[in-house]
Amino acid sequence: MLSPLAEKLIDEYFNLPFPGVTGVRCPYFNNIRKRSRGQLRALVGKGTPKEIVEESKIISTQYRLGIFENDCSVCKQNLTPDDIRKFMIDHDLGIECSGFVSQVLRAHYRELKGVDFARKIYIYPPSKFLRYLISILRPIENINVQILADDRNSVAVNLGEAASGDIITMLDTHPTKKINHVMLIRDVKDGKIQYVHARTWSSEGKYGHGVMNGTIEIIFPKDNLMAQLWTEKNCNGEQNETFIEAKRAKLLQIRRLKI
Q: How is residue 225 annotated by DSSP?
């Protein structure tokens, strides 16, 4: 398993700490569509659960949208988790895949090894002074899938070596071959890889996406990832859009960070 703090953070993404309402699963949001720069982490798909909730309070109060009571101490009693998710999605609040994985790994390595993962990995070289400086000041905001998959930061491991804290990277996937994705291995036991990630499925429409867990059952230990049984939302094969994205990827790997 991941460290207790990392597990707690995952649980908070699946049940955002909105006061007065439980069961709000964090939606997916990728800033690449908005291309906002210099924004707070919560506004670019990189925030912690608490930061995302706080930004929801600010937006609701600023625009008088009535999500919270007058003192912002609790959500209005008639709101459901779906109401809050809809509000968040309509206002571009959520988490994207590398932001989710980075935040969880940051908690994991802080507790496990006493190091800040986000300040240990290579992002930009000193020769690119401005970008390098920004990455020092705002590391989480500058970590993406390609950086996590960079040989300077992680190494590919075989299926049989997969362990908690490893990542599964998909490079150049989607029909466009321009999308990258990363999933975090939460645990490996009983012949199954248990993973978590932030993603969007086309079959879920505008409001169904967000953080999700799934399993990869190791049916053929000597074969590759694609030969195994992928299950998410009780969907397998062509009904499992995560499996389809993995199948489309130019490069699909299990990788271990050099921390």
A: G
- What DSSP string runs through 67-116? SB-TTSSSB-TT--HHHHHHHHHHTT--B-HHHHHHHHHHHHHHHHHS--
Domains in the chain, number? 1
- The residues pairing with 47 across neighbouring beta strands, listed in sequence order, are none
State both tokens at 89.
Answer: 């999605």
Write down how long the chain is.
259
Does 81 fall in a domain? yes
Query: What's this model's pTM, rounded to 2 decimal places?
Result: 0.95
Residues 6+ apart with CB under 8 A from 189: none
Residue 211 within any structural domain of the chain: no
What is the residue range of 48's domain?
Answer: 19-90
pLDDT in tens, 95-134: 999 999 999 999 999 999 999 999 999 999 888 878 888 8
* Domain-embedded: residue 67: yes
Q: At residue 100, what are phi and psi to the nearest 5 degrees?
A: -60, -50
pLDDT of residue 101: 98
Q: Which of 64, 235, 252, 246 is nearest to 159 (CA)?
A: 252
What is the C-alpha to C-alpha distance for residues 34 and 32, in angstroms, rounded to an integer?
A: 6
Q: How many CA atoms lie within 13 A of 107 on its CB side?
A: 19
Give the integer Cα–Cα distance in Å for 40 and 49: 13
Within a domain: residue 228?
A: no
Tell me: the pLDDT tens digits for 13-41? 999 999 989 999 999 999 765 555 557 89
- High-pLDDT (> 90) share of the chain, %: 80
